[in-house]
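Q: Given only this backbone (236 positions), what sequence would you predict?
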């Protein structure tokens, strides 16, 4: 049975994997509204990598596959409502089936990092009606977890590919083997019982750009996942 739901969507310049922790500083009015709505509901929203080639009402569109983020902590930094700090953890993956556009189009010359930008969009929102949603929402389908074991031999091959990539990228400098092992230990990746979370973490260590991780998130079975990670770690 396919599980669908409506989710607020937060496009970001990153890929969130299931069970990965993510801290965010929230200062834009539209995303403060998103967090407020989440805290009044089930505390969940969708994190998607930004799709820089597409827009929705002038705002950067999300990629179509993302991960549900569950808010575990929310703090009003200065106790004035101007900036929130939230801690989240990734839950299930999802695929967007229908975008629900925000009520406000992006104003011309809008700068999210200025007080003037915040004032302009807040004033427009008040005129439109404060119950209207400033953020993107979507009807999404929950994607089942890949319920397969990670073969140890394939995991060890991925680790060797990661080491080779790091060494090649560092040239002409030399990376000592003990330094690579230290990194693996730091991120708890020295194991003989790898899980899918180990693959996600190794992929993140091997990526230079978040766009390189989108295919990892989108993989629907273990064979595709390992193949996509191999492509990521291949030195071109």
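A: Predicted residues:
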């Amino acid at each position: 049975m396919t599980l669908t739901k409506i989710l607020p969507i937060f496009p970001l310049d990153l890929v969130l994997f299931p069970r990965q922790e993510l801290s965010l500083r929230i200062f834009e009015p539209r995303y403060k509204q998103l967090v407020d709505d989440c805290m009044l509901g089930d505390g969940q929203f969708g994190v998607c990598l930004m799709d820089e080639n597409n827009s929705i009402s002038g705002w950067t569109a999300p990629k179509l596959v993302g991960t549900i983020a569950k808010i575990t902590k929310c703090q009003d930094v200065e106790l004035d409502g101007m900036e929130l700090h939230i801690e989240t953890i990734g839950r299930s993956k999802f695929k967007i089936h229908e975008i629900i556009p925000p009520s406000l189009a992006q104003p011309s010359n809008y700068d999210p990092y200025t007080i003037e930008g915040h004032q302009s969009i807040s004033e427009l929102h008040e005129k439109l009606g404060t119950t209207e949603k400033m953020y993107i929402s979507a009807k999404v389908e929950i994607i089942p977890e890949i319920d397969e074991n990670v073969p140890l031999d394939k995991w060890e091959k991925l680790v060797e590919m990661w080491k080779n990539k790091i060494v090649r990228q560092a040239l002409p400098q030399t990376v000592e083997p003990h330094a690579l092992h230290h990194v693996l230990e730091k991120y708890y990746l020295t194991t003989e019982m790898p899980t899918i979370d180990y693959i996600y973490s190794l992929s993140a260590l091997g990526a230079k750009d978040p766009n390189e991780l989108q295919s990892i998130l989108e993989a629907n079975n273990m064979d595709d996942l390992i193949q996509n990670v191999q492509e990521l770690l291949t030195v071109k």
